[in-house]
Specification:
Radius of gyration of chain A: 23 Å
Shape of chain B: globular
Strand content of chain B: under 5%
Number of strands of chain B: 2
Order of helices and strands of chain B: HHEEHHHHHH
CATH architecture of chain B: Orthogonal Bundle
Distance between the termini of chain A: 57 Å
CATH class of chain B: Mainly Alpha
Structural class of chain A: mainly alpha
Radius of gyration of chain B: 17 Å
Helix content of chain A: over 70%
Number of helices of chain A: 11
Number of domains of chain B: 1
Largest sheet of chain A: none
Oligomer: heterodimer
Largest interface: A-B, 86 and 64 residues
CATH topology of chain B: Arp2/3 complex 21 kDa subunit ARPC3
Structural class of chain B: mainly alpha
Strand order of the largest sheet of chain B: 1-2
Shape of chain A: flat
Distance between the termini of chain B: 45 Å
Chain lengths: 263, 214
């Protein structure tokens, strides 16, 4: 197996693992959205994203992107973390829709042969994607996954779906660590870069071994769960009463939705 | 193939979400009433394994690399209904933990990657398995991911938010994934070959063979 590919795999796993740790760290900070009940936050962010996806006006989507940034600042989300997450999808969106600046008809700009309508569309599309990613990012960066699951349960999501998500999340870091160990071990055994055919055969055996281990672990966990009489519902921290932060966030969402409606 | 929020019209996103919930509910019933409390751990752990396996880089000619998606593979290994539930869990975790895809468009992403890819992949495998399991696994991976990309292309092409016409999105994504899908097909086939040799009892027809022998 080629060593550069192994390095890339290890780097990919490390990035995912870092994101995991970050997702467990930022929600502990004292900030605006951290104080909001997860169920209220989930519904509020869903409302904000829903309002954003139907917008077709540049100034409106720019204002919504501003709301996402303001929520991140108020929630003390590190700027590097927030913008690191938010810049990727809009950049890709820009590349995808950029040809429309030429393809769309109508009057052109004075200094470049680009359509006015096309440039407006490309800018609106890109900023809209950025605003949506911004809202999703503030939700994910200020909420522990366990709290998100508790919110889903509180919102009457099917129990089995919530259990599946909880179990998968619980084992992800373990499997990342196992995959990383296997990749490092393979790298240690690899003295020279084999040809493409050999690399593919080795990779097939490698992923097959890894998936077999996953399956066997799953079978063990299933037997253990059956012996205990099922997994049961994982206890979740619950908040019975809503506080000032929930009301404030509710007002922000209502004001944003109303503002967009009047715009 | 994860579509972020902002690309697809709200009506299409809602329609796909309703469709996904309906299909996954049927899948949950078809695997024995509901997914039992004791069966959920197997699915959850395998979903985590599939997620982690997607991290491995596979070399492709030209110096670049590709990733395994695993929709058709999960369908062959677990059966289509458990496979769909497994992949739906993976896609949801990707959205709710790592922000891949979006919130409003989650139902559409689940539909493309956990329903279309899994069921089409499984159908292709069952259809071609009598002519060779290795070839059938290759075709399942290849055509499964292409079918998922095509439904994503239809969702994008029908959305007024995305200015490209339906024919354009279908042509670009269809042809693109018809080529890229060859890599997914090849990965599915080599992993399947290893598993079929290491644990022949996991092959989809293993139970019927044992029953026939008895």
């Amino acid at each position: 197996m080629r060593t550069d590919l192994l390095d890339r795999t290890v780097a990919g796993i490390a990035t995912r693992a870092r994101w995991f740790l970050l997702a467990e760290d930022v929600p502990d900070r004292r900030g605006f959205l951290q104080a909001v009940a997860p169920s209220v936050k989930l519904l509020g962010v869903l409302a904000l994203v829903t309002v954003t996806v139907v917008q077709r006006d540049l100034s409106t989507v720019a204002a919504l992107a501003g709301v996402a940034v303001a929520l991140a600042v108020l929630s003390r989300v590190p700027a590097r973390t927030f913008f690191g997450r938010v810049t990727g999808p809009p950049t890709f969106a820009l590349v995808v829709v950029a040809p429309q600046a030429v393809l769309m008809g109508g009057p052109t700009l004075d200094w470049v042969p680009l359509s006015v309508a096309g440039v407006d569309y490309v800018a609106t599309f890109t900023v809209r994607v950025a605003a949506c990613v911004g809202f999703l990012s503030v939700l994910l960066l200020t909420t522990r996954f366990a709290d998100l699951l508790a919110a889903l349960r509180r919102l009457r999501a099917p129990t089995v779906a919530v259990s599946l998500l909880a179990i998968t999340y619980r084992y992800l870091l373990l499997f990342f660590a196992e995959l990383e160990r296997m990749v490092r071990a393979r790298r240690g055994r690899t003295l020279a870069d084999p040809n493409l055919r050999r690399t593919w055969r080795d990779s097939g055996n490698f992923v097959g071994t890894f998936l077999l281990r996953s399956l066997e672990r799953g079978e063990r966990v299933q037997r253990a769960a059956r012996a205990r009489g099922g997994t049961g519902t994982t206890p979740a921290r619950s908040r019975d009463s809503l506080g000032a932060a929930d009301a404030a966030f509710g007002l922000v969402v209502l004001a944003t939705v109303a503002g967009v409606g009047f715009a | 193939m994860h579509i972020p929020d902002g690309y697809v019209d709200l009506s299409i996103a809602v329609f796909c979400a309703v469709l996904s919930v309906a299909v996954l509910s049927v899948a949950a019933r078809r695997v024995g009433g509901e997914v039992s409390d004791a069966r959920a751990p197997l699915l959850g752990v395998v979903a985590a394994g599939v997620f982690a396996a997607q991290m491995l880089n596979w070399p492709i000619p030209g110096g670049t690399s590709a990733h395994f998606v695993g929709g058709a593979f999960a369908a062959i290994l677990l059966g289509p209904h458990l496979g769909a539930l497994c992949l739906a869990t993976v896609v949801t975790i990707q959205a709710l933990v790592f922000g891949d895809g979006g919130l409003v468009v989650l139902g559409a992403n689940v539909f493309n990657m956990a329903i279309v890819e899994v069921y089409v992949g499984y159908a292709v495998y069952r259809l071609l398995a009598p002519y060779g399991e290795f070839r059938a696994a290759f075709a399942a991976g290849w055509l499964g991911i292409t079918a998922g990309a095509l439904t994503a292309a239809v969702q994008l092409g029908l959305s007024s938010a995305f200015e490209y016409q339906l024919l354009t999105t279908v042509a670009i994504m269809g042809v693109g994934h018809l080529v890229l899908g060859l890599v997914e097909g090849a990965i599915t086939a080599v992993v399947y070959r290893y598993l079929a040799r290491a644990r022949p009892d996991l092959r989809p027809d293993a139970v019927s063979e044992v029953a026939a022998d008895a």
